């Protein structure tokens, strides 16, 4: 093979060698520079900061609630994932120093479409910029895209808005709306709707929440602005059986107590089944008549969604630049993302629906030796079965079966709020005494 250097003179070859040595040296220097740049700590001081609100959507089924439990490996939460993304994107250095607030904290398994947080983040505006004005949203960092690239599939930032320095996602929220989805089954919708009217207004909800004496809650009064039951659109449940159509409870209030919505739904299901009259709601809201919560469980967390949180005067930005054409805006990418997840879940749902349809045609023998299909057997079966067993929906497909139903007002009751707080203070005093005694023994 003929070399292109075969006819080169000695001087030409030496010049070429020197040229190549320079290239190698430059490449080595460039690699060293890139390595040093990569390892160099990020300088947040080069940038200004600003306070923003973020609207966050999440599917909470696989998380231990929204609020961090400070054990992300063992008890992962939505907040843990958000904090991790904010720090990884270099938008925040330290969450504790970022004036972070959240609109609400949802329970384990509960989802959110309208959760809002407030936080101080890095701005694109340099610290060296002498102008006092904040950047317009169209000139700022693409907060939505930046965070969504770092978040898991079941958490997405939907929008952001500039806010004042004193903004609090908790205290500036004017209303919160929850939705709870349920299949009708054998429930009487008229009775359900009548019971909902008793919840509306300002009431003491101590019999519809989980009390924590360590929090020292001073008032259990909350305002329910509206509570409605609507059919869920676009669900296809034909052939699954009687009562397979879905409805949603839309519950709007100014604020809520711990587990309040799930306890309200649990009692509604008893009313819907005809096991309690709608007026049981009115009785339990009367704390002079019922001073402590009777023993009844919470409804399932699966169908509950924090649907919306309302604020005055926030101008939400939904894409990097809402004011110019973008062939692939952030909002469209978010839609495609949720569409993919929706199709996956719909395929699973249709698969189960086929199984139900087939099993629904299986034969069941009746006491008179006649035969029925499983679907007809379910249709003819009452809330109270032939043996006296009561079937009680718990939401999310769960049911409880009781051999003998006891009305709510006949059930054992929890301690009153006052008694719970007294017992807590006694336990706290004993704990302090044990610690003091242990300290004295160690000192000796």
Automatic annotation (TrEMBL):
InterPro entries: PsdUridine_synth_cat_dom_sf (IPR020103), PsdUridine_synth_TruA (IPR001406), PsdUridine_synth_TruA_a/b_dom (IPR020097), PsdUridine_synth_TruA_C (IPR020095), Pus3-like (IPR041707), TruA/RsuA/RluB/E/F_N (IPR020094). Residues 3-30 form a coiled coil. CDD domains: PseudoU_synth_ScPus3. It holds the Pfam family PseudoU_synth_1. Keywords: Coiled coil, Isomerase, tRNA processing. The keyword Lipid biosynthesis does not apply. Residues 195-311 form the Pseudouridine synthase I TruA alpha/beta domain. Belongs to the tRNA pseudouridine synthase TruA family. PANTHER family: PSEUDOURIDYLATE SYNTHASE (PTHR11142), TRNA PSEUDOURIDINE(38_39) SYNTHASE (PTHR11142:SF5). This is Pseudouridine synthase I TruA alpha/beta domain-containing protein. It comes from Helicostylum pulchrum.
């Amino acid at each position: 093979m003929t070399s292109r250097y075969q006819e080169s003179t000695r001087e030409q070859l030496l010049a070429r060698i020197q040229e190549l040595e320079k290239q190698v040296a430059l490449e080595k220097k460039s690699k060293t520079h890139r390595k040093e740049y990569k390892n160099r700590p990020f300088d947040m001081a080069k940038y200004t900061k600003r306070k923003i609100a973020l609207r966050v959507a999440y599917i909470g089924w696989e998380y231990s609630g929204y609020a961090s439990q400070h054990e992300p490996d063992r008890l992962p939460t939505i907040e843990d994932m958000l904090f991790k993304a904010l720090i990884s994107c270099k938008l925040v250095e330290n969450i504790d120093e970022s004036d972070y607030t959240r609109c609400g904290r949802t329970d384990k398994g509960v989802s959110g479409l309208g959760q809002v947080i407030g936080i101080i983040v890095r701005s694109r505006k340099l610290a060296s910029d002498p102008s006092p004005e904040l950047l317009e949203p169209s000139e700022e960092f693409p907060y939505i895209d930046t965070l969504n690239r770092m978040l898991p599939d079941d958490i997405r930032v939907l929008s952001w808005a500039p806010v004042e320095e004193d903004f609090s996602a908790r205290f500036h929220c004017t209303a919160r709306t929850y939705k709870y989805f349920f299949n009708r089954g054998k429930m009487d919708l008229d009775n359900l709707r009548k019971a909902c009217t008793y919840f509306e207004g300002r009431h003491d909800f101590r019999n519809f929440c989980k009390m924590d004496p360590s929090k020292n809650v001073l008032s259990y009064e909350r305002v329910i602005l509206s509570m409605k039951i609507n059919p869920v659109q676009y669900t296809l449940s034909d052939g699954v059986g009687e009562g397979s159509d879905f409805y949603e409870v839309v519950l709007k209030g100014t604020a809520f107590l711990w587990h309040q919505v799930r306890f309200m739904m649990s009692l509604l299901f008893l009313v819907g089944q005809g096991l309690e009259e709608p007026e049981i709601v009115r009785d339990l809201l009367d704390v002079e008549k019922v001073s402590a919560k009777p023993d009844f469980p919470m409804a399932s967390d699966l169908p509950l969604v924090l649907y919306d949180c309302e604020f005055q005067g926030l101008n939400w930005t939904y894409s990097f630049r809402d004011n110019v054409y973008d062939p692939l805006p952030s909002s469209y990418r978010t839609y495609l993302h949720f569409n993919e997840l929706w199709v996956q879940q719909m395929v699973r749902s249709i698969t189960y629906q086929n199984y139900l349809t087939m099993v629904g045609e299986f034969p069941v023998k009746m006491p008179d030796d006649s035969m029925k299909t499983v679907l007809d057997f379910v249709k003819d079966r009452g809330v109270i079965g032939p043996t006296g067993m009561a079937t009680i929906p718990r939401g999310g497909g769960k049911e409880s079966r009781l051999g003998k139903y006891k009305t709510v007002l006949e059930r054992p009751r929890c301690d009153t709020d006052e008694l719970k707080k007294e017992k807590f203070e006694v336990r706290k005093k004993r704990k302090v005494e044990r610690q003091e005694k242990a300290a004295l023994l160690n000192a000796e």
